Amino acid sequence: MWKQAIENAMIKVKNNVERFGDRFPHVSVNGKYELNNNEDWTNGFWSGMLWLCYQYSGDEAYREAARLTVQSFKRRMEQHIVLDHHDIGFLYSLSSKAQWIVERDEEARQLTLQAADVLMRRWREKGQYIQAWGLPDDPQHGGRMIIDCLLNLPLLFWAYEQTGDDRYRQVAVRQADQSRRYLVRGDDSSYHTFVFNTETGEPLGGATHQGYTNGSTWARGQAWGVYGFTLAYRYTGDKLYLDTSKRMAAYFLEQLPEDHVAYWDFSAPIDTATYRDSSASTIVVAGLIELLEHMDAEDPQLAGFEEKMKLSMTSLVQNYSTMDEPEAEGLLKHGSYYVRGNLAPDDFMIWGDYYYLEALMRMDKGIKGYWYE
Ligand code: GLY
């Protein structure tokens, strides 16, 4: 089934190269992707999908399209277009770092190191966190760290490996530690965000941006935690991160309904109108594939995680993918971007498509994506 799903997805990606031209997909509205000129936080996912398709198939058409996206990311860096946020890791890990991993292109490596430096500027010494959005004095977002940032840390860990400059590693480790301390709660659920006093660095409290309430568990935030902590473990070997990933994964999997795909927030009331977030589930599937590689063969949670990972993936392919819809632009239906803000509450999300493809390719051919070399 995985092979068939991949073949089907690759045809759609090729059709989309024609459809999208040099623009980038973000989320869809009524099944049609909104496109932009590489100025959103999501643009790396499209580039990553093209690199995955090239690695899987060896088809030059994907490589050509992927290289063109990296040129676009180069221009974005030169002109500093919408880079004042922490999502630099999502943007450049899956575009220029992917190119470096796939074809050892030195220019792509340099561009990725530049991106790591841009991310480093978001480190706030007072409070010790990477500020997610906006400039330091931003009235709404100053003082805010968020759980999603865990997926941006591989860029810093990688920059440390490449350069030997320990500052990158230290910031990544501190951010992962602070995320464990302030974003993961005692019952293994999570806050989406945590706020510090910008002047004193004093920790103020957990809050949400995209979740149901400040104290709720936003499903995608929990998913970023599962995958992000296991990647922090891969880079550092610190068992605390592995343990945190396992605990967050167990919490996520316990909340799943009968079809093994998450509702958008685990604290939201459930009725027939409650939205799913298929993207959260596919992030967790990809994260579990990584996590399983690090677990001891005797770990009592191993078999259960593996079984649930396969049940979720099977359900995503059978019940949420567009396998039977040849004209569809997206791969995975029923993602939710920002339900409370009424932004794409039930549609395609380009990151959902990316992680779906990454998970499938990891399962089928061991192609692992671009978070580490
Ligand atoms: N990182 C933003 C989101 O997950 O929607």
TrEMBL record:
<protein>
    <submittedName>
        <fullName>Glucuronyl hydrolase</fullName>
    </submittedName>
</protein>
<feature type="binding site">
    <location>
        <position position="206"/>
    </location>
    <ligand>
        <name>substrate</name>
    </ligand>
</feature>
<keyword id="KW-0378">Hydrolase</keyword>
<dbReference type="InterPro" id="IPR010905">
    <property type="entry name" value="Glyco_hydro_88"/>
</dbReference>
<dbReference type="GO" id="GO:0052757">
    <property type="term" value="F:chondroitin hydrolase activity"/>
</dbReference>
<feature type="binding site">
    <location>
        <position position="220"/>
    </location>
    <ligand>
        <name>substrate</name>
    </ligand>
</feature>
<dbReference type="InterPro" id="IPR012341">
    <property type="entry name" value="6hp_glycosidase-like_sf"/>
</dbReference>
<dbReference type="InterPro" id="IPR008928">
    <property type="entry name" value="6-hairpin_glycosidase_sf"/>
</dbReference>
<feature type="binding site">
    <location>
        <position position="148"/>
    </location>
    <ligand>
        <name>substrate</name>
    </ligand>
</feature>
<feature type="active site" description="Nucleophile">
    <location>
        <position position="87"/>
    </location>
</feature>
<dbReference type="GO" id="GO:0000272">
    <property type="term" value="P:polysaccharide catabolic process"/>
</dbReference>
<feature type="binding site">
    <location>
        <position position="208"/>
    </location>
    <ligand>
        <name>substrate</name>
    </ligand>
</feature>
<dbReference type="Pfam" id="PF07470">
    <property type="entry name" value="Glyco_hydro_88"/>
</dbReference>
<feature type="binding site">
    <location>
        <position position="224"/>
    </location>
    <ligand>
        <name>substrate</name>
    </ligand>
</feature>
<comment type="similarity">
    <text>Belongs to the glycosyl hydrolase 88 family.</text>
</comment>
<feature type="active site" description="Proton donor">
    <location>
        <position position="148"/>
    </location>
</feature>
<feature type="binding site">
    <location>
        <position position="87"/>
    </location>
    <ligand>
        <name>substrate</name>
    </ligand>
</feature>
<dbReference type="InterPro" id="IPR052369">
    <property type="entry name" value="UG_Glycosaminoglycan_Hydrolase"/>
</dbReference>
